[in-house]
Amino acid sequence: MSLANRKYEVLVVDDSPVYRKLVEQVLSAEAYSLVFACDGAEAMKLFEERSPSIVVTDWMLPDFSGFELCQRIRSDDTRPYTYIIVMTSNGDKGNVVKGLQAGADDYLTKPFDPEEMLARIGVGRRIIDLNRELAAKSAKLEQAARTDPLTGLPNRRAIEEWAERQTRGAARHGFPLWVVLGDIDNFKTINDSFGHDAGDIVLKIFADMLKKNTRASDICGRLGGDEFLLVITHVESTHVEATVNRFREQFAALSFPLQGQSVRVTASFGATGVQAKDAQGFGDLVRQADQMLYEAKRAGRNLVRVSYPQANP
């Protein structure tokens, strides 16, 4: 939605029906969606439910002051920024200063001028737009910092953050968790024979295959080069080798048209796991999986090797 067509929800807090109606008349024709509260408690309930973009509140409320309302809104830093305008009935500078110190962004004096209200809320809209744009850019940067640019998969940082939590969960709740390393066989030969663009195609297709076959409860990502990592949960030891073999077989069945040739490419996998409330760390699991991957390579490639955890007595 463009900024010009965007709706802004405004929470109006005032115990006077007359002033609530006046604000409604001023704002209803503009790009605002209005909700109303008669006191601070109702205002906080609506704020928690709806996270309005703008709050216009009277200084004097039946249960607590606009000062306290500003403080309570600002104490919640989990929500998008809310622009707060405090209304005072007599232009008391002391109350204005208190409101600004409590977190208000602007103020109006009663009786307010409709054009002034529109102008001040317009300033609020611009501030809200800037905060939204900054939040969106920050989210994109954060996503980029956790994403492999070539394949679009999570990178090492994202995998480690996710897997550390899952490893602790597996130890706490006793569900099986498997760490799997996958490595494309003879990848250097592909780059040397067909060029790095061809190598990138192989990496992207391998990544796409992993992604399509990874459940929502699991994760797959690229560690770097031609090495990929999967974390698989809630698969019993009797089924894990078959699960990983499915990845291997699907990839080995593909044919890559490289420089007019039909080229078969394979991958090797090493896996290890924890179960029965084993408290092993994720880094240790990665090292064990890497050892299993080395054994698969040494045994001839296009293989899966699994290290099964010892059952706890």
Note the main attributes of this structure.
elongated, alpha/beta, Alpha-Beta Plaits
Would you kindly provide a written description of the structure presented here, covering whatever features stand out?
By secondary structure, the protein is α/β, with parallel strands linked by helices. It has two domains: about 5-145, 3-Layer(aba) Sandwich (Rossmann fold), CATH 3.40.50; about 155-305, Reverse transcriptase/Diguanylate cyclase domain (Alpha-Beta Plaits), CATH 3.30.70.270. Helix content is about 50%, strand content about 20%. It has a five-stranded parallel β-sheet, sandwiched between helices. Strand 3, helix 3 (about 65-75) and strand 4 (about 85-90) form a beta-alpha-beta unit. Helix 2 (about 40-50) runs parallel beside helix 3. The longest helix is centred in the middle third of the chain and has 32 residues, at about 115-145.
